[in-house]
Structure formats: structure tokens, C-alpha cells
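Hi R.,

Here are the chain sequences for the assembly we discussed:
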Amino acid sequence: MIEPPSLERLIIEFSGFPGIGKKTARRLAYHVLSKSKEKAVAFSEALLDAVEKVRPCSKCFSYAEQSLCDICKKRSGASSLCVVEKTSDILPFESSGVFQGLYFVLGGVLSPLDGVGPEHLHIPYLIERVQKENIQEVILALGSSPEAESTVLLIDRLLKDMPVKRSRLARGIPMGSDLEFVDEMTMLRAFEGRVLF
Amino acid sequence: MIEPPSLERLIIEFSGFPGIGKKTARRLAYHVLSKSKEKAVAFSEALLDAVEKVRPCSKCFSYAEQSLCDICKKRSGASSLCVVEKTSDILPFESSGVFQGLYFVLGGVLSPLDGVGPEHLHIPYLIERVQKENIQEVILALGSSPEAESTVLLIDRLLKDMPVKRSRLARGIPMGSDLEFVDEMTMLRAFEGRVLF
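And here is the predicted structure of the full complex:
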């Protein structure tokens, strides 16, 4: 398809989003052109407005428009702290309603190959929060890649001598999945962690 | 999830795209924030630039930046004209390379319930093109909804007395599909149109 250059550029921009292939990117770009100019301007404004206004919460590094995010404001004084890699990892906790405590966004996991060392993560702020606030339990909810595992090990070591419980999420078979299609590592963890009746 | 207002607005804007649900919209909005401000600005510029520059081709109503689109420019004088509902319908013809002729974007199909009558489509321009240019065949490639069918009937009637062949795409079983899952209407058309060896 021979598209005009500006349309082609817009398609390339859309392809840059995660999970958006060339075909979907094209569909989205065509959608922009099929709507009124005002809608495109509104979208562009929403985009710039969000980038302009949203900044890291000064306590948990999640997204906020003021110094503190809504969760840090509303749940101030809570005694559980859930440590996640990135802000979007907070979503499943909040949508399931399983956790009513505070969060801490680490900003990544250790990855020596990508040049990400402890100094690139928010680890010192995490330690400081645990020392200063009345945190009883730190839940390390960091995924199960080797990088995430070594990040958990490091934080665990740093917190070891403090009067705080440390935990991580259970691993096992996800709900609703067919055993036939469970991968080997998941099966290994589920078997190891089997629960007696 | 309690998101800052500007982020929430951006999520709502993304949900307005076709095929983008709330979850994907949130993922896309979070992606914007996770990247540099420069990238968001570049995306926003690409968006406004495309909306600003792209306009309908003066001959075929496809997308163009100049008076004529690239296809109308390069294939001027071709004798086949493929009539489609919207610009993006041109894509499968071009990506399969099956057609080397000209296109004409109708701008919709008749839909009395939505208030779309013949006067809202580019039908007069189509008739004019067929009269003035050396068009030998008009391929009516308009989908198979009742609205599209009645639009095809109308155009067919308008072209009937002109010295031009009229055709439509074959209907039948799509490639690679399991017969078990073919819907009734498709089976009906495929059976009716069966081809003798």
C-alpha cells in the first residue's frame, strides 16, 4: 500500500506501542483520519496533558499528579507494603481488591546485561521507608524471571535484620487453566509447593 | 485502581479506538508515561501532522497529501476501477498484489436507518469518472451486508446503460477455514456458486 508520508509516520508511531503490530497500527491510524480533526486534537491534548502532569509519587513512585498518589494519601499509616516492579503491576492487586495496604514501585529489576544495577532502582528509598514507617510486612511481588529473583534476593538480604516480615506471592497453577497446557517450570513450582489436606 | 485524572482521560481516549478495550487502553496509556516526554511529543506531532496533511484524493477519495494519491498518479489510464466502501478496504487488494487498476472510495454504503442516502456517498463522482475516463470494468467490492448489497444494486442500475463491464468479488469458503465452522450464509453462497470441474 502506497500511503502518504504523514500517514506512514503515524502508522510507525502506533507500531511502537507494546502488543500493536503493523496491521493494528494501520487500523488505528486510519481510525484517526476517519474521525474529525477535533477528535485528533483532543487525543493529542490528552496525551501531552498526561505526560505533562503525571509524575512519580514522592513516597511510592507510582503515578501521581500531586506530591502523593491517591493510594499513599488514603492509606497512610497502613502496615503492609507491596513492592512491585512497575506502576502497572499495581492494577491486578487493586482490581481484585485483595490488598488494602501501600505499594512501592521499584522502577525495574536488576539486569546486569542491560546495565541495570541496584543504583538504578529505588531500593534506598524502600529501605528508608521500612526503617521510618510502621511497616510490619513487605510483600515482594516481583515476577519470576531470573532478574526478578536476584532482585528479591538482594532486597531480602537488605531487610533481613529489620523487624519486618518478608513474603512473596504463592506460585502454582493459575485458575481455570488446563493441566495439559501448564508449562514445566509452573508445574515444578506447583508440585514443590503442594499443600497437604 | 485510582489513577490521576489526566491519566484516566488518556485511557478513555485510547478506549475510543476500534478493537481497543479498557485493559489494552490502560496498557497503551501506561506505555506513553513510561517513555520519555520527547516520545510523547513526537507521537502527538505525528498525529496532528497526519490529520493536517492528509486529505481525500480528488479523483478516488482515498488518502492523499497532494491533489492526487500515489495510485491515481501512477496508474493513470488504467481501465479497471475497483469501488470500495472506505480507504482501508484498498489494503487487501494492494497487499495481495491481485489488482493493478484504479480505486474509488465510495465513503460509505446506503443506510436509511442512519440517515445515509445516495447524496451522502460519492456516487455522482463515480458515474462521472466512468463516463469521462476509459474505464472498461467496474468491480463493486462492497462487502455483503444488506446495506452494501442495496448500494451495489443502486450503482449497478446507474451504470447499466453505459458501455462498461460490472463485476463483484466471488463469495465462498475462505482459504484455510475448517468447513465445520463455516457459517450458514457463507455455505449457502459457496454452494450456490459451486464450480464444475
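The mean pLDDT of chain A is 91. Residues 140 and 168 of chain A are 5 Å apart (CA to CA).

Let me know if anything looks off.

Best,
T.
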